[in-house]
Amino acid sequence: MAESKIITSQYVRIDQIPAGIGERIFARILDYLVIIVYVLGLAYVIDALRLDYNGSNSGLPVYFALFMPAIFYSLFWELLNRGRSPGKMAFGMRVVMRDGTTPTVGAYFMRWLLLMIDTWGWIGIIVILLNKNNQRLGDLAAGTMVIKERDYHHIHVSLDEFDCLSRNYRPVFPQAENLSLEQVRTIHETLTRRDERRPQRIAALSARAREFLKIMPAVDDETFLVTLTRDYQYYALEEI
Predict the structure, then answer these.
(1) Would you call 144 helix, strand, or coil by DSSP?
(2) How, if at all, do strands 13-16 and 93-97 pair?
(3) Considering the chain, what percentage of its residues have pLDDT values greater than 70?
(4) Of the N and C termini of the chain, which has fewer Cβ atoms inside 10 Å?
(5) CA-CA distance, 78 to 84, in Å (whole number)?
(6) Residue 16 to residues 3, 32, 67, 111, 119: CA-CA distances in angstroms?
(7) Handedness of CA 226, 234, 137, 23 (dihedral sign)
(8) Is residue 56 packed enough to be buried (19+ CB in 10 Å), middle (13-18) or exposed (0-12)?
């Protein structure tokens, strides 16, 4: 099963699991059923109230407004419900950006705009089958993906702090790539814990890191450990 990997600001590595094609098809069918029920209900109300604009241009905006929830169904639900339509909620799915963050309005709009193409014939299904993240054409254009909602509360974190790191940062110690997630978490906890024994713990951990990575840094122990964590982030982001 394909996975999309994220490294959060807490150094937690998350495997985003793309929703399967079967789940997406059934979720879409359920959404279409909701749309059909709404349209039929609206048609019944219009007929009961004898609302007929008879081709009059003045009545057309009213009809358009009444049918807007059906026309913009996917866009409205994803915008107002954090990437979840009723069908997606029923099957435990959500739309996110590929980096795990919440999609922008433009991304949601792009997904909606290309929905007609994706649902025409077998285009959407074929595109989903041809890429590892199960993205339809609208997802590829918007940079989004539909994931299983399990553990999403861990994914919904801000990755803004990594933007400048990925663009401008240059790693100092290439050996940081060999660190494990647990080792980096230990370094992070040691640096953030404030008590009277902090200097001793930093010195001891720095010595162990130098020995493990075979590094002789020309900086103090704390700067060395901070740099290691930033270098680790840099290499982790290269994999996303």
Answers:
(1) strand
(2) unpaired
(3) 79
(4) N
(5) 5
(6) 5, 26, 35, 19, 25
(7) negative
(8) exposed
